[in-house]
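COURSE: Structural Biology Practicum
ASSIGNMENT: Worksheet 4, Part C
STUDENT ID: 0417
INSTRUCTIONS: Below are two proteins. For each, the amino acid sequence is given first, followed by its structure token string. Answer the questions at the end about the second protein only.

PROTEIN I
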Amino acid sequence: MSRLQFRRPSIDIPNMKRQNVEIKTDKIRQAFLEMKAKTPERLKARLNLSWSNWGFGIEPLASSAARLQKNGIRFIELHGNHYGPDLGYKAAETGKLLSDHGIRVAGICGMFSPDNDLSSNRAIQRQAAVDYLKREIEFTKQIGGGYILVVPGAVGRPAAYDGSEFERSIGTLRLIADLFLKNGVKAAIEPIRSAEVSFVHTVADAKKYIEAVGHPGVAGINGDVYHMQSEESHIGEAILEAGDRLINLHMADSNRCALGEGSLDLDTIIMALYLIGFNADGRYVTPEPLGPGGDPYPAMHGKPDGPLLDRMVRQTASYFREREEEILSGSASLGQDFAECRKTPNKPFRKPK
């Protein structure tokens, strides 16, 4: 029997009160079913599956592109590796390599360490962040990408410098906000868990930061479900709260490994994405399974284990597509069973054969 994970108790316990997370999940799933019934045309296009390549370490881009092509992934989020004027991918050769594998650049994963921290209390580090973003904006335009992920404070530095980080960060980003508009590149602010950064941890924090910057060139959000499970009360609700601002969503299972290897409620996440119209051009679901740990940035320097990476990409891509198709193709019978289940709360929620 096929099953959509609904987080209901498997044991029939009469009059058992529902958990808060179940109530929130029910609302999202019911909204999805109502959308399916009333406006089925909104489900025709599938979500755009991409991949963030910096977790592949020092592997040649050609090897990474071949792996993604083999697994039917048509988009890539490139490592923002222009740490200096002479460093990083070259637009012409990178574009040709990816084109030869049928892959387009979705965007750039901006990397912000204490060396190029928008919020640093050292002016030289803030200037480094400005110079870094100038290089990445130019490259993104040349390569045809749509967004750059921006982290307001350094990753791997969970302790605050002082009480003025927020103000320094928005002041620094404002210096180059016009460049995003001029080059047709979207800035996507990423909220990150408090174990890794000192501020901007939730979607609400990201929206507050964007409003404080107050510039149309800085208006997007890059979500990450691994951080959301630590900082948000409900991942699906956080996706709905992000709404039209959400440009990209990083994916990994609850253990930050391949999808399907943890306890992440992927079905509800997919439904929430369809509810906000995320199955559209310029919006991407981007796996970024890095494994657990406090500071993920060392992964960019790791020696690649080809067979392990092959399995990780294959597992993640196939599982995501499997769940997406289960939700979309089975949603008619799912709606009937959902309605029945709401009348009898103790009944395990299962999709009929």
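PROTEIN II
(use this one for the questions)
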Amino acid sequence: MNTAELLVDRLIDWGVEVVFGLPGDGINGIMEALRTRQDKIRFVQVRHEETAAFMACGYAKFTGRLGVCLATSGPGGIHLLNGLYDAKLDHQPVLAITGLQFHDLIGTHTQQDVALDKLFVDVAVYNERVMGATHVENVVDLACRTALSYRGVAHITIPVDFQEQELKDAKRSKRNVPHHTSDICTPLPLLPRESDLHDAADILNAGKKIAILTGQGALGAVLQLLRLSLERLWLRTIVHTRPAESDCWARVLRKRPWKNVTLSLS
């Protein structure tokens, strides 16, 4: 089992089913690990790395799941940035995986020698360089958990030779306990201050012609939103939802057959 295989297996454990990317010699090890696991995880090849990042962001937006994109070293990784800034500004969980030059050529001005971990500092909520087979499990777990919990971009980059390093040949430090991380994620609660809730209630109660535009702040609050708009405020309600949430809305409407609701799927 090598570093790239451990990486892909960990992505599968996190429920990742698709990776968007463009092959390159800086990610040969990862591409081979994806090829040998194509029955469990799908690789969607694009024509430009920027497209891969936008597709990963779109996937996260319309499924609510972690989007993953993959690019080679140097300019390949640089091309991801446009799509990743879209994910950052729209607060979408996206994991970007890139390659690096051979570990003993980093910083020597060799071909495609770009320190992508430094380049991604601004766009990512988690950003780390994998330094071998004993390091990858911890980093992938933290990257996936951080992207999902903080709804942002995580980035991991791996030197091309380390991608094929066998776990049995790698020496683990005495503080690095095997399997001490997990594939469990608890999203952070986004709760407003109680005083802000009272202020909002006062505004709604005083209003005469009220329109409520709800976005991602209402994720997971389907029933509460309908009760507020229909039972308390008697509003005509138009629900514009993502496909990932449409089943939830439909179940709510079947249980409580309100008549003043229009359901719109994005």
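ANSWER KEY EXCERPT:
Q1: The longest helix spans residues 133-150.
Q2: The chain has two domains: 3-169, 194-265.
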